[in-house]
Amino acid sequence: QVLQNGGAWTLQIGAVSSEGTIYKDFYLSPSFVHSSSSQLAYVRSRGAIGRSNTDAINGIGGYYHNGVNGLFGGSLVVAKDTRHVSGNLFVREFSDQTVVRQSASSIPEFDQSYDVIFRDNLAKDDQLNANPIGITVRQQSYSKTGSSYVLYQFDIVNSSGSNLDSIYVGLGADWDVGNAGANLGGYDGSRRLTYVYDQGAIDPSYYGLVTVSGPPSGQLIYQNGQDPNDSATYRVMQNILGGGSSAGDLRAFIAMGPYSIPAGGEVRTVFAVAGGDNLADLQVQADSALFKASLFTNLPTAFTQFRMQDSLALVDLYNATNGPSWTNKTNWLSSSPINSWFGVRMLNGRVDSLLLFDNNLVGT
Length: 364
Known about the structure:
By secondary structure, this protein is mostly beta strands. It folds into 3 domains: 1-28, no CATH class; 31-299, Distorted Sandwich (Beta-galactosidase, Chain A, domain 5); 306-354, no CATH class. 12% of the residues lie in helices and 41% in strands. It has 4 helices and 24 strands. The chain has helices spanning 53-58, 230-236, 279-291, 302-320, and strands at 2-5, 8-17, 20-28, 32-35, 39-43, 48-49, 63-65, 68-69, 71-79, 85-86, 95-96, 101-102, 112-119, 135-143, 149-158, 164-175, 183-188, 193-198, 206-211, 218-223, 250-261, 266-276, 344-347, 350-354. The strands form 5 sheets. Strands 11, 12, 13, 14, 15, 17, 18, 19 and 22 form a 9-stranded antiparallel sheet that branches. Strand 14 and strand 15 (149-158) form a beta hairpin. It is globular, with a radius of gyration of 22 Å.
């Protein structure tokens, strides 16, 4: 059977015997690609950066520079404290509220843009107890012809119902560059750049993560098999720790914060995933990405866009159910706040429910 799962779908296959029934779920969600002459980057949902678990099985890459993939997998990570860390390199702790879709770009020259909305309701702590922070994330990614980086905008909306303090937002990446077992890495603080490269000649490219919207609060390059748990991840997000001088299968992490987000409020963070022909070229890409930071300050926030979506949905409902003939249509389609529209109930700034029983709604 096929089940709707927020903004995507789950294909559920079951096997029945005298011993019982087992089910296997396959997550279905569309994806898109940022493509230019020098880079190709897959756009994923559920907080994944580059590629998903299914892609890894099928051998599909996540971020290509000059036609060669350097990214095994990556993820957004948001943390409140040592017990509340949402996001993981290989365990999806976000669920989609929409599918990935092509969207209008608000950044000049960046003609490729995609967005998706997800929340952290699947997050678990180190003891595998359900432990979400209570956030909704709108991810929008941007790229343009001639560049070798993708800008990732994450609008983190506080949907927990309480104020959130000491919030950190980061990106983790499992880089596999050329001979993945012999990678080296480094950190360029002046460019807010953490990077990994192959010390041999299999792939001469350099790959990195950049904190575009603010200085890094934490950074680490570490060996595969030394992945920090939630508690350690929160501490990494608060300290520049370097790493990468010993060759191996390397993973990188970089974060920004701390942020305070009031109930119903939000914070915007912007990162770049970049590739370069060599370190100097990667630094040029990082400089270019950092130069774009100011372009994000005046864009409509996710919260504003969520409320706009809610308002448009209510207008569609009104028009589809013969709104002019409703028994009570107080403030509907007016410029008054939508929480004053008859029957509309709000929670944390979003439409939560409609109480329109016996109001002469006709249609579907």
